[in-house]
Amino acid sequence: GAVVSQHPSWVICKSGTSVKIECRSLDFQATTMFWYRQFPKQSLMLMATSNEGSKATYEQGVEKDKFLINHASLTLSTLTVTSAHPEDSSFYICSARGFMGLAVRDTGELFFGEGSRLTVL
Amino acid sequence: DAKTTQPPSMDCAEGRAANLPCNHSTISGNEYVYWYRQIHSQGPQYIIHGLKNNETNEMASLIITEDRKSSTLILPHATLRDTAVYYCIVRGGNKLVFGAGTILRVKS
């Protein structure tokens, strides 16, 4: 399967600072990327959908000014948690969908990154 | 996307087949059934997906009932490394919406 990489895998920051998490598709062009958040012992919650070159679409209840998403290229999307607070501490996971190699056909599968654990002190 | 119902947890003996059920009674004709699993503190891993025919790959088999209202994921010879949360997802559009999943514990 295709490879999606996240960086950093874990980060600790002080309350009030901003943190950027990167999501890269390593061997395919990701036309669409998704950002999820997962609290301990809970399922993944979809935060937003981003398409390359356009504004992200946020799920209900997710603050777009707090969770800034940029998808400026076909291989990179970033999530910035602005003015982080302890309640933003969570496991953030991205997934990507796109075109494999030279194929024009979108395979439809979603490939997930390894996740980034954010701890806000 | 249609909602799915899975048992919260299951146990399976190592080396035996693990059969994970999923109900999706409101599935519509163009929606696929996807299975992912998540091992602790990792991103979800794709397992298999299907529309109406049974599917098999190197990881698992997917059995979908004729009316498509339920399906079963089969891990033919479960190992300890298969202990994870298994998510059954019905998807027609772009997004994958995760439910609570089934915690599968494989025991020696």
Walk me through what this model shows:
The complex is a heterodimer of chains A (121) and B (108). Chain A has strands at 4-7, 10-13, 19-25, 28-38, 45-51, 57-58, 67-73, 76-81, 90-100, 111-112, 116-120. With 121 residues, chain A is mainly β. In chain A, the strands form two sheets. In chain A, strands 2, 4, 5, 6, 9, 10 and 11 form a seven-stranded mixed β-sheet that branches. Chain A has a four-stranded antiparallel β-sheet with strand order 1-3-8-7, with no helix packed on it. Chain B is mainly beta and 108 residues long. Chain B is 0% helix and 46% strand. In chain B, a hairpin with a 6-residue loop joins strand 3 (32-38) and strand 4. The A-B interface holds A 1, 4, 6, 32, 34, 36, 43-46, 49, 91, 93, 95, 97, 108-115, 117 and B 32, 36, 38, 41-46, 49, 87, 94-101.
Write the topology of this structure.
The complex is a heterodimer of chains A (121) and B (108).
Chain A: E1 4-7, E2 10-13, E3 19-25, E4 28-38, E5 45-51, E6 57-58, E7 67-73, E8 76-81, E9 90-100, E10 111-112, E11 116-120
Chain B: E1 9-13, E2 18-23, E3 32-38, E4 45-50, E5 55-56, E6 61-64, E7 70-75, E8 84-91, E9 102-107
Parallel strand pairs in B: 1-9
Antiparallel strand pairs in B: 2-7, 3-4, 3-8, 5-6, 6-7, 8-9
